[in-house]
Design goal:
The protein is α+β, with helices and mostly antiparallel strands. It is 53% helix and 8% strand. It has 9 helices and 4 strands; from the N terminus they run βαβαββααααααα.
Amino acid sequence: MKLYHFPISPNSRRVIAVLHHLGLACDLHALDLVKGEHLQTDFLALNPNHMIPTLVDGDFVLWESNAIMQYLCSKVPDNSLLPADPKVHADITRWQFWQTAHFGRACGVFIFENILRNAFNLGEPDAQELAKATENFHRFAKVLDGHLAGRAWLVGDTFTLADFSIASFLELTALAKYPVEGYTEIARWYSAIEQIPAWQSSAPAKIS
């Protein structure tokens, strides 16, 4: 297998964490988005969205990080990241959809405005966009914080794909400047995730 990724991307981080946890062999190929490597013809043939991560497994090409995570779990039967029980499976998938539709979108604005604008020389952060993102962040952070009260993990009694999917954004908390103050359950939960070996080994190099 070959995974095209961008080292500081939360979407890439969670897939790499799954690879490490499951012990799957995969060639990691970093694309330099600043140089436009994701827009080259060869990569566009794999992913017309020109986004990362993108997985190539023989003649099978898969994009969308949460789909990739579930596909990787299918290679290791009876793993704890995506149990076979249909209700547990659906609950994990529910949180992955929630991350894509809500929490990740709110975090993504902070990442773009406070990190990527500078990286791509796109000017100063847009205060109006950040104000809207702040409102959305609080809306969904309250949901997450409330759900985690009294729970070690999002689903069941061990970490799953749900935890990896949502936690992947929190590596960038300081740089992206998420308004995380006061969300004590999220802080406790993410602190536990940082102790997971696969999470530690998937961490990108520190950026400033």
